[in-house]
Write a structure and sequence with these properties.
The protein is an alpha+beta fold. It has 2 domains: 102 residues, Peroxidase, domain 1 (Orthogonal Bundle), CATH 1.10.520; 70 residues, 3-Layer(aba) Sandwich (Glutaredoxin), CATH 3.40.30. It contains 8 helices and 4 strands, in the order ααααααβαβββα. It has a 4-stranded mixed sheet with strand order 2-1-3-4, sandwiched between helices. Helix 1 packs across helix 6. The longest helix is centred in the first third of the chain and has 18 residues. The mean pLDDT is 92.
């Protein structure tokens, strides 16, 4: 039997949720519910552990999912999708599948996810200027995820797609060191 990679499994489940959302013309609503579920899981990681527990019966998992879905007011797409994950013993991949759904949603809606590493949080004016510059450069709407990295010493690193712009002081010092040693 051929073994399927975890990434392929996550991608398949995320794609199936996106497809279900498209069929019901509720992609925006499902994206909102995915964000809510991601936030819930970030606040309480025990939910995944409990739902992934092989000792729980499928019926118990369905009841727990039904309870969570009613409390959070999730639509049928998310609820049915969570039940399928539970039935196929794939709850351990839930967080990854939710993240992948988000990536699919952004790609389909022309949004570029950009990771920005900075020494400290940017001011609102700096954030707005950076976002405007990136949207102009990429010709897309941009969603920026910031990560604070004091070891950069100053400046920032911008990552999008397979590209990276390193304008940090640490990066400049590293490049200077390479040049001084006679490298390229």
């Amino acid at each position: 039997m051929k073994k399927i990679s975890k990434a392929k499994i996550i991608s398949t489940y995320a794609s199936s949720l996106y497809q279900a959302a498209e069929e019901t013309k509720r992609t925006d609503k499902v994206m909102s519910e995915v964000d809510t579920l991601r936030q819930l899981l970030a606040e309480d990681e025990k939910i995944i552990t409990a739902l992934a527990n092989p000792i729980w019966t499928i019926d118990s998992k369905h009841e727990a999912i039904k309870s969570i879905a009613q409390k959070m007011k999730f639509g049928k797409e998310i609820t049915e999708w969570l039940n399928i994950l539970a039935e196929n013993s794939r709850m351990a991949e839930l967080s990854g599948a939710l993240d992948e759904f988000k990536h699919i949603y952004y790609r389909r809606h022309g949004v570029e996810e950009v990771e920005v590493l900075t020494v400290k949080a940017l001011s609102a004016a700096q954030d707005k200027k950076l976002k405007t510059l990136l949207e102009k450069k990429l010709s897309k709407k941009v969603l920026i995820n910031y990560t604070i990295k004091p070891e950069l010493l100053g400046g920032l690193i911008v990552k999008y797609g397979s590209s990276m712009i390193d304008d940090s002081i640490a990066g400049k010092l590293t490049r200077l060191e390479i040049i001084m040693k006679g490298g390229q």
